[in-house]
Amino acid sequence: MKKHMAFKKLILKSFLLSCYKPKSPPNSERKSLGFKDISSRRLSLSDLSNSSVSIMSDLSNSLVGSNLHTFTLKELKKLTQNFSKSNFLGEGGFGQVYKGFIDDKLRPGLKAQPVAVKVLDLDGKQGHMEWLAEVIFLGQLKHSHLVNLIGYCCEDEQRLLVYEYLVRGNLDDQLFKNYSATLPWLTRIKIAVGAAKGLAFLHEEEKPVIYRDFKASNILLDSDFKAKLSDFGLAIDGPEGDKTHVSTCVMGTEGYAAPEYIMTGHVTTMSDVYSFGVVLLELLTARRCLDKSRPNREQNLVEWAKPFIKDPHKLDRIMDPRLEGQYSAEGTRKAAALAYQCLSHNPKSRPTMTTVVKTLEPLLDLVDDIPIGPFVYVVPMEGKDICESGKDGGNDNDKDDGVGMVKNGNGGEEKEVGKKEKGISRQRRKLGHRQKHRNKSLRSNAVYSDTALYRTLGSGLYSIGQKDLEQKNPHSGEKKLKS
């Protein structure tokens, strides 16, 4: 036992030395310090709990077996243009997030790529321990459905994290913000499957990880809507040995936390399963888990929706109306039944995340019963715009008034959308109303186009290159990355 503790202390000191070392220790030194012997053993926060505060306050420039890069504050200022407002992506509990770009000349072995840089708010609620948790977990846990941590910066009191940049931002923005088209049904299921695989990976580790903060804003999406879990500041190691739970102070986000965790402070992997059930319900309804703007009985999504997801005949009452019926009836029933299981008040009655993945994946193949709506195509306008069409008071019939045509994919019927107006004054009065009505119509029908194409192309429908999206609007139009 004494020998084990001495070895453990030696290992901790070897990588918890200083944030200021410019280079990693050579391989020969790593071997002499015993790194080779523990390369397969994952370091956890509990390993650090017995070390002194002075040792914990410093972190070495790399973790055992990881490929993390240590950045200087000067380097991160350069690649974010000194944290300019034009590169600002968003702000969360950890601090502000900025977009940056690493060129291939920064250092050997680091490819050119866009990145998201999180800067710890020194006056915020989170601090060094949350930063440390991110480095410890994401520095060692690698999975296709976990966001990739590229590196970090630790200088004086400054704490920064550098992640891969995901062009579509987070699920919260995609699901609840005012975008032109709603997420199609199969895209929602794809996101749910990806997030479930990320959680299952954490729970199935030899030393399980409890995420503790599973929510829509922590699910990031790449250009193909592939889901990746982010923000591991509240993650903790699960119970070991004969223990059934971990007792901690209650942390997380209101509305997503499991009831037993709130009441007792006891947290297990089943607490994450409950949170997943909440997000799955959000995907079905496009309602936030807590919404004070709704009537009293509808403010808490779980309490309001549970009676409906229990009865398959009532599901249509809570489904996102923007889908306009374009979803699989069988898939909806199975997803709702799964959500009901995940939201059970008894943790032992909830399915494991492995079971959740096995239940959700087949839903991606349920396409035969998805109604096919009309395919919408708007003919580009040519010539002068609407406001110019009658400016000289001439005959409007001789001018292009910007009328568009919509083609119905079912019958091939063409329909005029827009009316010719007489006189510029009347046109200007009507323009606002007509444009608003037209935009609303196109937003409503956009989901039909997606659903119809998805049946043919699958997820390839969304394989838009990241470069193309960035060129479209390199700064202001980017989706926000929440910390």
From TrEMBL:
It comes from the Eukaryota. It is found in: Cell membrane. Pfam families: PK_Tyr_Ser-Thr. Residues 83-364 form the Protein kinase domain. It catalyses: L-threonyl-[protein] + ATP = O-phospho-L-threonyl-[protein] + ADP + H(+); L-seryl-[protein] + ATP = O-phospho-L-seryl-[protein] + ADP + H(+). Residues 388-402, 412-424, 467-483 have a biased composition (Basic and acidic residues). GO terms for cellular component: plasma membrane. Its EC number is 2.7.11.1. ATP binds at K118. Residues 388-447, 464-483 are annotated as: Disordered. Keywords: ATP-binding, Cell membrane, Kinase, Membrane, Nucleotide-binding, Serine/threonine-protein kinase, Transferase. Residues 425-441 have a biased composition (Basic residues). GO terms for molecular function: ATP binding; protein serine/threonine kinase activity. Belongs to the protein kinase superfamily. This is non-specific serine/threonine protein kinase.
